[in-house]
Design goal:
Radius of gyration of chain B: 14 Å
Radius of gyration of chain A: 13 Å
Strand content of chain B: over 45%
Order of helices and strands of chain A: EEEEEEEEEEE
Helix content of chain B: under 10%
Order of helices and strands of chain B: EEEEEEEEEEE
Oligomer: heterodimer
Shape of chain B: globular
Shape of chain A: globular
Structural class of chain A: mainly beta
Distance between the termini of chain A: 37 Å
Largest sheet of chain B: 6 strands, mixed
Number of strands of chain A: 11
Number of helices of chain B: 0
Number of helices of chain A: 0
Amino acid sequence: EPEVTQTPSHQVTQMGQEVILRCVPISNHLYFYWYRQILGQKVEFLVSFYNNEISEKSEIFDDQFSVERPDGSNFTLKIRSTKLEDSAMYFCASSSRTANTGELFFGEGSRLTVL
Amino acid sequence: QQQVKQSPQSLIVQKGGISIINCAYENTAFDYFPWYQQFPGKGPALLIAIRPDVSEKKEGRFTISFNKSAKQFSLHIMDSQPGDSATYFCAATNPETGANNLFFGTGTRLTVIP
């Protein structure tokens, strides 16, 4: 069964460092997403990506964040200068339709710890 | 107001019992209400979803009840099994803010005791 894969599963970084989280979405999907979940809190939308550009983003997704689909298979989230409050589980997801018409398939997450 | 309020935070049910998780919202623009199930160490997975023009949707042991006037919806798990032990999230989308932004509730950790 096709699945969304994420790497790394856990990354520890120092405050101010750049972090890149990587995702391989399901191959025939058209929509790609990043969500995050701070420990013990709800899952929050960061950004959606369609047709090689950002289609929607939340207030959380400020200038410190960027996304890229560099080679047609990977989908990356970059945090330019990490802060303590960026510590969270980051979930990549993909879908063949928009989130309000079909299922989002989530990866297992990348846990980011900022020290 | 883009919040979806979910209760209870945790729930313990005996095997064979009915698990009920409730969600409420304020924004009448919400037009799609999915439930996602998350097992430890895994990402959320879609369980069942409903639109506000339907009052109930059933898939196997899982039923969503939707009360548009009260702005509430709930997930019922009939004949709960230990394998149902997971965290359940309700969610909603608002077409005014985009078709891809799922607003999640805070989650309910369900434990089904054998």
